[in-house]
Design a protein that fits this description.
This protein is an alpha/beta fold. It has a 6-stranded parallel beta sheet with strand order 2-1-3-4-5-11, with helices on both faces. Helix 5 links the parallel strand 1 and strand 2. The radius of gyration is 23 Å and the shape is elongated. This is LacI family transcriptional regulator. GO terms for molecular function: DNA-binding transcription factor activity; transcription cis-regulatory region binding. InterPro entries: HTH_LacI (IPR000843), LacI/GalR-like_sensor (IPR046335), Lambda_DNA-bd_dom_sf (IPR010982), Peripla_BP_I (IPR028082).
Length: about 350
């Protein structure tokens, strides 16, 4: 029978801190190789079993759900995780977090996931923005391991997923500007490999085409959803002789960059330039002026993804799992939150 040890016990036997053991278990790269080897040797020799994973559900299944997350510093992560946690707290499962980042190469992300599976700690996985790990998660799912993706990106996948309706949200934002009278509406796009980014761009195009306006490639610039990535596109737009009267940024953080660049150019928002973002992360309501933006239902995304995974865990066979999953792609409604960063356009000739 496996000896039940805690992380504290492993740390003591290996002569390291508990945080070091945790980092080894999560395959973090900043652990000295010799230290990593020592910890892994202790784990192997002692037949390590985590306290929580030692408790099994009926049928011998682990009572842990793994959650693969990007940086918890992302402004949207707190609401997603709150939704997940509220559901898991009402279930017989516990939640175990693992971090995968876009800076990790595909092989490193795959190693993290493999580690979770080989340790038998998790009965299923919630993957938040998994990025290049999506194909591997798809392979796992199609072999019968329960997986749910939150706001997936990249190649289409058979894995059940929950996302916001990015296309409709971007359409509503662009249409709002058109109804105000704007015709030169610039767009700062997110990374083209993100399905969310592709959908938002399509929503922007839908609204322009509905209004009888051609898509002007000079009014479309590339960002990457990260802070400061909207600065260069904003500089290009605001340096034009016939500059746009409105800018729709693909997310709020890039919209903040537009505010900074507009201030540098001596432009006042919304008097000289209207601005719309996407996400409605907490700081957006407290900017000067408060930002008009598309609100994503982050809490509901986490909540419904967790509920979906729990329903998959109740399915006993992989064939039933695949049959059930065919209808499990959920797009949640977005809302346009109107604040003070938009107004009807003024003439810009002579600027």
């Amino acid at each position: 029978m496996a000896r039940k040890l805690t992380i504290r016990d492993i740390a003591r036997l290996a002569g390291v801190s508990k945080s070091t053991v945790s980092r080894v278990l999560n395959t973090k790269q900043d652990v000295d190789p010799a230290t990593r080897e020592r910890v892994l040797r202790v784990i192997e020799e002692q037949t390590f079993v985590l306290d929580m994973s030692a408790a099994k559900l009926a049928g011998g299944r682990s009572r842990l759900i793994g959650s693969l997350v990007p940086s918890l510093a992302w402004p949207l992560m707190s609401e997603i995780m709150r939704g997940i946690s509220d559901v898991v707290a009402q279930s017989p499962y516990e939640l175990l977090l693992y971090s995968i980042t876009k800076n990790q190469v595909h092989e490193e992300q795959q190693q993290v996931i493999s580690r979770i599976l080989h340790s038998n700690l998790a009965s299923g996985l919630l993957a938040v923005f998994p990025g290049p790990a999506t194909p591997y998660l798809t392979e796992l799912y199609e072999k019968g391991f329960p997986v749910v993706i939150i706001d997936d990106r990249g190649e289409p996948t058979s894995v059940p997923w929950v996302s916001a309706d990015n296309r409709v949200g971007a359409y509503a934002a662009t249409r709002y500007l058109l109804q105000m009278g704007h015709r030169r509406i610039a767009y700062i796009q997110g990374p083209v490999e993100y399905r969310a980014s592709q959908a938002r761009y399509q929503g922007y195009c839908d609204a322009l085409q509905e209004a009888g306006l051609a898509i002007d490639p000079t009014l479309i610039q590339q960002g990457d959803f990260t802070p400061t990535s909207g600065c260069a596109p904003a500089e290009i737009f605001l340096s034009m002789a016939d500059r746009p009267t409105a800018i729709f940024a693909g997310n709020d953080q890039m919209a903040y960059d537009v505010l900074t660049v507009a201030h540098k150019h001596g432009l006042r928002i919304p008097r000289d330039l209207s601005l719309v973002g996407f996400d409605d992360i907490p700081p957006s309501a407290y900017l000067s002026p408060p930002l008009t933006t598309v609100q994503q239902p982050f809490y509901q995304m986490g909540k419904q993804a967790a509920e979906l995974l729990l329903s998959l865990l109740d399915v006993s066979s992989s064939s039933a799992l695949n049959t059930l999953s065919k209808s499990l792609s959920i797009r949640l409604v977005t809302d346009l939150v109107v604040r003070d960063s938009c107004s009807p356009p003024r003439t810009v000739k002579g600027y």
